[in-house]
Amino acid sequence: NSRGTASLLKDSISFTEVSASGLFEGHDLLRRGFTSVKNELLPSHPLELTEKNFQLNQDKTNFATLRNIQGIHAPLKLQMEFRAVKQVQRLPFLHSSNMAMDILRGNDECIGFEDILNDPSQSEVMGEPHIMMEHKLGLL
Q1: Which domain holds residue 132?
Q2: Which residues lie closer than 8 Å to 61 by C-beta, 6 or more apart?
Q3: Total domains, the chain
Q4: Mean pLDDT, rounded, for 78-93
Q5: What is residue 2's predicted lDDT score, i.e. its pLDDT?
Q6: What is the chain's mean pLDDT, rounded?
Q7: Taking Cα atoms as reference points, which of 140, 130, 138 lies closest to residue 92?
Q8: Which residues contact 35 (CB under 8 A, 6 or more apart)?
Q9: Is residue 20 part of a domain?
Q10: A GO BP term, please (predicted)?
Q11: Residues 105 and 61 occupy one common structural domain
Q12: Which candidate, 58, 94, 92, 97, places its Cα nearest to that of 78?
């Protein structure tokens, strides 16, 4: 029995958990960085992940349907247009409505939550333009 218990203990402790200072080692801040509670939290509701990925799932479904109806060229062309629209952006201190992306997705005629409560004059991201540009260009 002692032999069986030793094999169970040997199997239960992996070598990655054991380090030079032992099993009760603290968090190594220099190697692993700061711990974040936000990264360890699980979604509070089962539908939360689905809602976060709704637009991505809808795009995949639309591309699959478009491919079945019109062929491979249609979703490829649309994906190329999406990439081109994502690359063109305003300066970091200016609010962007992403109207071109809404037109490509067909959301330009829909009124949603973000259309009413996303007023750029009440935005908290407005900052010093020169500092924000220097940060984006990597000069700061």
Answers
A1: 90-118+126-139
A2: none
A3: 2
A4: 86
A5: 47
A6: 77
A7: 130
A8: 27
A9: no
A10: proteasome assembly
A11: no
A12: 58
